[in-house]
Structures
1.
Amino acid sequence: MLLKYAIKDFQEDREFNQVSKATMTNYMGTLKEFHQYCLYHEFIDLAEITPQVVKQYLVYEQKERNNNPTTINSKLRSLKIFFNYLQHAEIITSKANPTQKVNYVHAHVQIEVFSDDQISQMLRYYRRLKTRDKDFFAYRDST
């Protein structure tokens, strides 16, 4: 089966299952980019798409388009959902699913924490708010 027809079939199935507009936009945006990448590299048929092609696409997105690890994982998630749909619909076999052996990118996330002075300043603010306003929200925020 040609990739463009598989994408169309996936889109119709998701519309039938009433997937939200935001989710549909996310799926179709990723699949459109992936399809363009495959066309550029002359991968037209589903049988030609291997785990290596998927990895090369994700590397391209990371290096050429400067996508961060979270975006790469989001795109991989959309591709996995697409290929799992094709497997469930028996268009491809589980062995032919190219995303099955592709792992998510490990993101090194640095979370900045508040300093002791910032925490003290926030606590002072909410304590003052609680004494000034005698409503439920002031007590809740103070707590």
2.
Amino acid sequence: MLDLHNHTTASDGVLAPSALIERAHSLGITDIAVTDHDTLGGLDEACSTGEVLGVNVYHGIEISATRENGGSLHILGYGFNRDAEPLSSAINLLRDARELRNEKICVKLQEHGMEITIAELKQIAPSIIGRPHFARLMIEKGYVDDAYEAFEKWLGVGCPGYVDKEVLSPAQAITAIKQSGGIAVLAHPLIYAKDAQKLEALLKKLVSFGLDGVEVYYGSYSDAERSMIRCFADRLDLLPGGGSDFHADPHPLGPGFPKEIEAEWRRRIKPLNRAEVNSA
């Protein structure tokens, strides 16, 4: 199986990169992409484990962008040059924006009586701090009962602790990926537009910026939803992507690609490690 959308502790996942690859191997997944938010920090560890276990590890990233009407939009990147300047600059810009946002969220929560500090967050998120880490600390300190309450009452859009952080436009995110030799794919499209007409309009706009693909075989989508997105992908000549968007249990790995789509992705991108050779 092929899974092109996964997260590790390098961003907001709960499994270390090595543990993610071990999990994939135990489930019979032979090809997996690590697509942490705005960082490439988990790739080396994932690749090393993939070589040992015979799992092909593909490098990826999920870049945050800001929509014109507010809120975020995520662009997945695959097959890029890891050292290319456009992508490096985008990652550095997003890292700085995320750090500033985290400081502002801390202040907002402190103003509402929560003793939440950056130092404490770094204890549970040694790499990149995100809102899920705030939620985890809020649970540990008894301010909320679970992550759902944390986001519904405090961390979600429009809530007292919400701060928008994204500083790239969708066009800039797509351009950074493509100028670095990569493939740009819209992540989980139904988050942004459930209505077919609005989704088509969004995709057409992103195609004008250079978008290459859209997630069709996304883990939680129904057959009807996948069929609708696939129709738009075919109409706009977009590569159908997909993945589980794994962050934590009980979310399963493996999106279930059709064989011809798996073959097309294997033709377009190559694994970072040598597992493909070793397991042949």
3.
Amino acid sequence: MDAEPSGTTRLERLLAYSVVACIGLSVLCFIAVLVGSAVGQGDAQLHGEGPWTALIMFPYFGLSLGMVFVIILIVTSAARRKRATSTTDA
């Protein structure tokens, strides 16, 4: 794979950006729901009118997917480092 001077691969960078995107969008959706509730959209949220259903449900899946990406990132990073140390030791 393509390696940067810091040792990160393209896959690790893609996973890191995916983590930031999933968790960041989940937090933004959560904030949007809080602001919507504060400005009187609670009734619309309860009845699923407009984009509220998607905004309410996205953090459930986005945070879970972000956590899966974090675990995959840790595993791939550990495997790459293990391979790097085993080739230099041999």
4.
Amino acid sequence: MSRPTDKQTLISQNTDSFNKLLRLINNLSQEQQLATFPFNNNRDRNIRDIVTRLHEWHLMVIDWYQHDRLSNKSIVNKRGYTWQSLPNLNQLIWEKYQTTPLDIALKKLTESHQQIHALIDSLNEEKLFINKYYPRIYITILGAYLIASTYNHYDWAIRRLKGYKRSIIKQLI
């Protein structure tokens, strides 16, 4: 799919990608859902790690929009991080959720997905996709933040889970 350029496409693609992600998770056995990935990754080691990262990014974008969009802060600057220090921020997110069970993480993700969709739904086409509608946004359109924290992030998660499924199949052969 191509990158969304209007509100309806953004909503549709987000919904489709989110549902695809949940189907991938639900089609795994409970043991597979809770297992550590067999491939080497220092941070996102299991499905819970991926799900909580998606959830936390939803919350950051919502919080940024509600409180800081008119300031001179980007999403990550608000938390004391820069775009260059994203790996450190994602590590902090990983640490925060290490004791969260997967079922709770999935509930949190579903709730934050609904919240970010409510935010998208509340915005008109101009606010989402008109260049420099919000002059203090570091990137040109608000929709780019929302695409990055939903559609693009869901696709990243789907790719990770497909890699995990391939590794499961290889182990069975």
